[in-house]
Amino acid sequence: MRRIVGNIGCFRLSDSKYGFGRIFQDACVAFYKHIGASEKDIPQTEDYAFIVGVYDSGVKKMKLVEKRPYSSIEEVTAPPMSMKDPISGEYSVYKNGAIRPSDYEECRDLEVCAVWELEHVIDRLLKDGKWTPTINK
Protein backbone atom coordinates (compact mmCIF):
# COMPACT_ATOMS: atom_id res chain seq x y z
CA MET A 1 0.00 0.00 0.00
CA ARG A 2 1.21 3.52 -0.70
CA ARG A 3 1.38 6.05 2.12
CA ILE A 4 -1.60 8.31 1.30
CA VAL A 5 -3.10 10.24 4.23
CA GLY A 6 -6.55 8.91 5.15
CA ASN A 7 -6.20 5.49 3.50
CA ILE A 8 -6.95 2.38 5.55
CA GLY A 9 -4.91 -0.77 5.18
CA CYS A 10 -5.26 -4.22 6.67
CA PHE A 11 -2.70 -6.79 7.71
CA ARG A 12 -2.94 -10.36 8.92
CA LEU A 13 -2.41 -11.06 12.60
CA SER A 14 -0.84 -14.25 13.92
CA ASP A 15 -4.26 -15.48 15.10
CA SER A 16 -5.60 -15.42 11.47
CA LYS A 17 -7.64 -12.28 12.13
CA TYR A 18 -6.98 -8.83 10.67
CA GLY A 19 -5.72 -5.56 12.06
CA PHE A 20 -6.32 -2.19 10.44
CA GLY A 21 -4.38 1.05 10.29
CA ARG A 22 -5.15 4.49 8.90
CA ILE A 23 -2.40 6.59 7.39
CA PHE A 24 -1.75 9.83 9.28
CA GLN A 25 0.56 12.73 8.51
CA ASP A 26 4.32 12.32 8.75
CA ALA A 27 5.28 8.70 9.45
CA CYS A 28 2.34 7.92 11.72
CA VAL A 29 -0.32 5.25 11.40
CA ALA A 30 -3.39 5.07 13.65
CA PHE A 31 -4.15 1.46 14.56
CA TYR A 32 -7.76 0.59 15.26
CA LYS A 33 -9.01 -1.23 18.35
CA HIS A 34 -11.25 -3.20 16.00
CA ILE A 35 -9.88 -6.63 15.03
CA GLY A 36 -11.59 -8.02 11.94
CA ALA A 37 -12.56 -11.56 11.03
CA SER A 38 -11.68 -10.82 7.38
CA GLU A 39 -10.18 -8.09 5.20
CA LYS A 40 -13.71 -6.83 4.54
CA ASP A 41 -14.53 -6.46 8.26
CA ILE A 42 -13.36 -2.83 8.19
CA PRO A 43 -13.69 -0.56 11.28
CA GLN A 44 -16.71 1.70 10.97
CA THR A 45 -15.56 4.36 13.47
CA GLU A 46 -12.26 6.11 14.16
CA ASP A 47 -11.66 4.31 17.47
CA TYR A 48 -7.88 3.92 17.67
CA ALA A 49 -5.88 1.75 20.02
CA PHE A 50 -2.73 3.83 19.45
CA ILE A 51 -0.92 6.02 16.95
CA VAL A 52 2.76 5.37 16.19
CA GLY A 53 5.33 5.93 13.49
CA VAL A 54 5.72 3.01 11.06
CA TYR A 55 8.47 2.48 8.50
CA ASP A 56 7.47 2.67 4.83
CA SER A 57 8.38 -1.01 4.51
CA GLY A 58 5.67 -1.80 7.08
CA VAL A 59 3.07 0.33 5.32
CA LYS A 60 3.88 -1.46 2.06
CA LYS A 61 3.00 -4.78 3.75
CA MET A 62 -0.52 -3.51 4.42
CA LYS A 63 -3.27 -4.05 1.84
CA LEU A 64 -5.39 -1.03 0.89
CA VAL A 65 -9.00 -1.73 1.88
CA GLU A 66 -10.58 1.73 1.89
CA LYS A 67 -9.83 5.29 0.84
CA ARG A 68 -11.43 7.18 3.73
CA PRO A 69 -11.49 10.95 3.29
CA TYR A 70 -10.87 13.17 6.28
CA SER A 71 -12.78 16.30 7.17
CA SER A 72 -9.83 18.30 8.53
CA ILE A 73 -6.08 17.87 8.73
CA GLU A 74 -6.39 17.66 12.55
CA GLU A 75 -8.27 14.39 12.06
CA VAL A 76 -5.12 12.78 10.65
CA THR A 77 -2.50 14.56 12.76
CA ALA A 78 -0.80 12.53 15.46
CA PRO A 79 -1.05 13.69 19.08
CA PRO A 80 2.06 14.92 20.91
CA MET A 81 4.73 12.27 21.58
CA SER A 82 7.43 12.09 24.23
CA MET A 83 11.18 11.96 23.81
CA LYS A 84 13.96 11.40 26.34
CA ASP A 85 17.59 12.16 25.53
CA PRO A 86 19.56 9.03 26.46
CA ILE A 87 22.66 11.05 27.43
CA SER A 88 21.30 14.10 29.25
CA GLY A 89 18.06 12.49 30.47
CA GLU A 90 16.14 15.61 29.41
CA TYR A 91 12.57 15.27 28.18
CA SER A 92 11.01 16.81 25.08
CA VAL A 93 7.66 16.76 23.31
CA TYR A 94 7.38 16.21 19.54
CA LYS A 95 4.34 17.58 17.70
CA ASN A 96 3.90 18.35 13.99
CA GLY A 97 7.62 18.28 13.23
CA ALA A 98 8.57 20.55 16.14
CA ILE A 99 10.41 19.57 19.32
CA ARG A 100 10.11 21.58 22.52
CA PRO A 101 11.61 21.08 25.99
CA SER A 102 9.42 19.38 28.57
CA ASP A 103 9.54 17.37 31.79
CA TYR A 104 8.72 13.87 32.96
CA GLU A 105 5.27 14.82 34.27
CA GLU A 106 4.11 16.00 30.85
CA CYS A 107 5.77 13.11 28.99
CA ARG A 108 4.93 10.14 31.19
CA ASP A 109 1.56 9.30 29.61
CA LEU A 110 2.43 10.24 26.03
CA GLU A 111 3.31 7.76 23.32
CA VAL A 112 7.07 7.47 22.80
CA CYS A 113 8.22 9.15 19.60
CA ALA A 114 9.67 6.35 17.49
CA VAL A 115 9.23 4.54 14.19
CA TRP A 116 8.42 0.82 14.28
CA GLU A 117 8.26 -2.20 12.03
CA LEU A 118 4.77 -3.56 11.39
CA GLU A 119 5.66 -6.81 13.19
CA HIS A 120 6.18 -4.90 16.46
CA VAL A 121 2.82 -3.17 16.06
CA ILE A 122 1.19 -6.58 15.61
CA ASP A 123 2.76 -7.72 18.89
CA ARG A 124 1.25 -4.70 20.61
CA LEU A 125 -2.20 -5.20 19.07
CA LEU A 126 -2.19 -8.80 20.29
CA LYS A 127 -1.21 -7.57 23.76
CA ASP A 128 1.73 -9.92 24.24
CA GLY A 129 3.17 -7.72 27.00
CA LYS A 130 6.48 -6.96 25.21
CA TRP A 131 5.59 -3.39 24.30
CA THR A 132 6.15 -0.40 26.59
CA PRO A 133 4.16 2.47 25.09
CA THR A 134 5.15 5.24 27.52
CA ILE A 135 8.43 6.82 28.53
CA ASN A 136 10.27 5.55 31.61
CA LYS A 137 11.66 7.81 34.33
Helical/strand content category: mainly beta
**Poorly predicted residue ranges:** none
Main sheet overview? 6 strands, mixed
What percent of residues adopt helix (DSSP H or I)?
Answer: 10-25%
- Compute the CA-based radius of gyration: 15 Å
Task: Tell me the layout of helices and strands.
Layout (H helix, E strand, L loop, with lengths): L6 E6 L5 E6 L4 E5 L15 E7 L1 H5 L2 E5 L13 E4 L6 E5 L2 E5 L1 H4 L3 E2 L2 E2 L1 H8 L12
Parallel strand pairs: 4-10, 6-9
Antiparallel strand pairs: 1-2, 1-5, 2-3, 3-4, 6-7, 7-8
Structure description:
The protein is mostly beta strands. Helix content is 12%, strand content 34%. The chain is built from 3 helices and 10 strands, in the order E-E-E-E-H-E-E-E-E-H-E-E-H. It has a 6-stranded mixed sheet. Strand 1 and strand 2 form a beta hairpin. The longest helix is centred in the C-terminal third of the chain and has 8 residues.
In short:
This protein is mostly beta strands and 137 residues long. It is built from 3 helices and 10 strands. β6 and β7 form a beta hairpin.
